[in-house]
Amino acid sequence: MTDREQYTPGPASGAQVRKDGEKWTLILVRELRHAPEKVWQALTDPAHLREWAPFEADGSLGTVGATVTLTWVGTGRPQITTVTRADAPEVLEYGDIRWELEAFGSGTRLTLWHSIDRRFISWGAAGWHICFDVLDRLLSGTPICRIVGARP
User: Fold this and answer.
1) What's the pLDDT tens digit per position in 33-67?
2) How far is residue 38 CA from its own chain's centroid?
3) Are 30 and 103 in contact (CB under 8 A)?
4) How far is residue 44's CA from residue 95's CA, in Å, rounded to a whole number?
5) Fewer C-beta within 10 Å: the chain N or C terminus?
């Protein structure tokens, strides 16, 4: 049995939803056992993103002004985004996503702010929760391959 076959999602907790007018924001916090610099690389490097994130990126997300095409798994539709903030290794913003990284003990408290259509909040929260599990395993050196979309 592979590590992926043995994977069971951990308990989901800490998700918040905020509404501002017609805009909905999903906020998820995860404490990772890895340094902010290591987490930053996983958030910005296309090769790392391909291993855990729910989208493919055709370029690095680590530089302000970078224009990157994101293709969300399952949609097949590319979405062009521009990095609007990249304060390594603390804050990263592009499109409707904001990442905050805070040193926490010997690891990182990672906070995701994702503006999302209210119809997809639960789906997004569950999906990101699993992506964070996969990210943690990738950074620990025990990758299990990304788990996104309808893929078994």
Assistant:
1) 999 999 999 999 999 999 999 999 999 999 999 99
2) 14
3) no
4) 14
5) C
* CA distances in angstroms from 146 to 4, 20, 53, 115, 130, listed in the order given: 9, 32, 7, 22, 9
Q: Which amino acid makes up residue 63?
A: T
DSSP 3-state of 87: strand
How far is 126 from 124, CA to CA, in rounded Å? 5
Long-range CB pairs of 41-50 (<8 Å, 24+ gap) are 42/135, 42/138, 42/139, 43/92, 43/99, 43/101, 44/86, 44/88, 44/92, 48/138, 50/146
Please give the angle made by the CA atoms of 142, 5 and 144, to the nearest 5 degrees.
25
Quote the pTM value: 0.89
Q: Cα 69–64–130 angle (5° rounding)? A: 55
